[in-house]
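In response to reviewer comment 3 from the previous cycle, which asked for concrete evidence that the modeling workflow produces usable outputs, we include below a single protein chain processed end to end. The sequence was submitted unchanged, and the resulting structure tokens are shown without manual editing.
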Amino acid sequence: MKKFISEFKEFAIRGSVVDMAVGIVVGGAFKGIVDSLVKDIITPLVGIIANQDLSDKVFMIGDVAIKYGSFISAIINFALMAFVIFIIIKFINKIKRFGKKEEAVVVTTKICPFCKSEIPLEATRCAHCTSVLE
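The workflow returned the following structure tokens.
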């Protein structure tokens, strides 16, 4: 049991777990902003184009109401959240790469023009077919 607790403690105090927790809290707060944007701005604008308010659209089957208008709003909400998260992750990755230099690949071998074997760059004779190289 002590090993389990120490492993959990090590997992919980890692930086990535703390970052993830902060991300979840900020994401929850951001969700409220996106919900309001979709409900109060985007859905009415779509309603203007369609000449009706889509958020209140309901299809009745007997006594059961199928709220397809709120479903459309949820789809717009999801697409907007996914797009914003994509942009944020793309921006963060760009920042991470900003200060790093690309490492140059050092070529140490070449291909023998006669037998197509890989040989050292400094070789003057192929070790496989013994051809003299320029």
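The two ends are 68 Å apart (CA to CA). We consider this sufficient to address the reviewer's concern, and the full set will be provided in the supplementary archive.
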